[in-house]
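User: Batch of two.

Assistant: Item 1 of 2:
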Amino acid sequence: MHIFIAGAGLSGAVTARTLAEAGHKVTVVESRGHLAGNCHTARCDQTGVMVHHYGPHIFHTDDVEVWDYVNSFARFRPYRNRVKSTVAGAVYSLPVNLHTINQFFGKTFRPEEARAFIEETQADRTITDPQSFEEQALRFVGPALYEAFFKGYTEKQWGCSPRDLPASILKRLPLRFNYDDNYFAHMFQGMPESGYTAMVASILDHSGIDVHLNTPYSADMAGRADHMIWTGPLDGYFNAKLGRLGYRTLDFERFTHEGDYQGCAVMNYGDAEVPWTRITEHKHFAPWEGHDGSVLYREYARACGEDDIPYYPIRLVEEKVLLGQYEALAAAEDGVSFLGRLGTYRYLDMDVTIREALDFARGFVAARS
């Protein structure tokens, strides 16, 4: 079969490779001038630093097959994401851990003492079934830690009150009663030594795959192939005829520094009056390299406009209703499959994106063999 794929990010690349290895001919079109979608990385000409152009991406997974898969296309180096947060003139470690608790409250708790302190004097135990982000935080860590580390940051990131966000957003973050400041708890964590764009280029390097950059999708393209796989925005495929699904987007303020600007890769800013959510210093994402200069980005979150790059699906009540309507349209499309974070309007980590692409492509091949 001749398969047409719109989008050269992780979903499109992994699907294309799997289908090509099964003997199908695959054409991939990408509207941007580079591979890897929002995972795109490239070296700064001025400093030599490997820059994550659309914000940092740290690979982490417990999926052994996915870990082996990415390592077959790139050399991964060990990396631990240790996030810091500047709040009210002090710097703390995230996620909230024993060091954060002791520093914030001026204590020297042992683990069981800290656990009892949070549960008995901080957490709101009257909340038995948290429904909102705020309720989950108040039950989780109590008002003091919530106000310091979550409330202002969340309002900036999502552009609304934490009372209006689902509790599930906060449930992804751990609370630790030890000194472990590794942001993730997955078995495998690392960074591709040569960057994500090189990894995706390796995935797409197959004789059965034809890639076209700077090529926006047009409606006539699907007719040239036996099947179409869409990894762009779900509503975008239908020209937003029912209305636009809600996303948050990011603005990046780039600056350089000679030396080490902040001493870590990610510094969050929890204070509501600070307009940016975080500053990322990209040479720290490759600690095995040495660079005198540094490249940094201040990140500002806002509502996604029609011509902006979508980052985070909002998925509140109104969006879920509209999503259901678009899902019904997608299900009625003949010869078209929708895949990936944008194509399914879900927040997906990279490992889950790859797992779903592998599973989809293998199922596609099996159904036609």
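Item 2 of 2:
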Amino acid sequence: MTTTPRTARHLLRDREASLILGAVLVSGLGSSAAALVAGVWVKELTASDSLAALATAALWAAVPAAPWLGALADRFPRRHLLVATDLAAAALLLLLAATAAPGRLWLILTVLVLYGMCGTVHDAAGTALAATALDPRVLGAFNGLRLTANKGMKLLAPLTGAALFTWYGGPAVALLDALTSLCAATLYTLLRAPDPASKPRPRHRPRGPLLPPSPTLRALVTAGACTMLLAGVNGASLYSVVDTGLGRAPSWAGVLYAVQGAGSVATGLAAGPLLRRLGERGFAAGGCALFGLGVAARALPGDAPVLAGSLLIGAGLPCVLIAALTAVQRETPADRLGVTAGRVHTLLYAPNAVALVAGAGLVAVTDHRALLTAAGATALGCAAVAARGRGVRSGEAEEVPRR
């Protein structure tokens, strides 16, 4: 492979990287729209902010099982696993489109939980496949572009989803997501890179130390877990911000998602150079600070501060996730990437799921402005903790050999 870590343009010239990014882009269109509409759909069916937040939490319910689900990526060919999970997600979405009704809330939540399980397996397999299919020197830039492709759909998918929901209802959004999942599965079938997971290997169980013995990786995962906990509180407060704070219709949440996506696009495109300049801890700390300021801004009255806060949240939240993911790919043996990615997925996203569930209850009894102000202040404290110590810079990390 001839790409260098210096420019995203060089990375996009690589066939395997382009196919993976294309699959992420097309599937992100459907999944981002569905993630938004899941809450809006339940909100319309039940007129309950708490149940709408619970529907969003259902998508994260599989996070505690991520080490076991991620281990599948060390037992089966990763490319085949990506195709299978995309096909399974499409089938679940078709079921959701055909059966969703006010009296079947339990069925809607069940389908969302299973859809989340597919996403957990898919994330672990995708992380492991990228680490073995691409040059280790470009992983930081690739992860930034992958996040840009995924989160960048927040510029288009929420508005598309909200429009489809308004005109044709929730089933139309589910059908869109099913179609994009099928397209992503097709792109993964075109990959040619060797897949180490297809070779015989010992059976791994998700036991032993949670993470490789790397102080930088452990610090990044800790900072990421704290940030995602606060992101769950922020997410659970979304419909209260839209409804109580701004007096808008629930579908206006799509506008906030779109603005947040713009911030994520900017961060993803700049991730490679920023990692080389700031180091992993500095990059993560800066992201925590931006996120905290954005969450606090959502507590202010008026459209302008809420929109500005959404932009800062989108710019800040991905930083610590990109830094942690790159460290995982760089420091984990190839035959244990799946289970390690699953463990990190649990450590990063389980706090988000817990906070979404807890927040669904808190928003019913607490003023959302108090919750957001407290969450923003705590995030700034996390930024100060993450900044302590010297993180590995991307340029230095590129010299670490794959094990």
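The radius of gyration is 20 Å.
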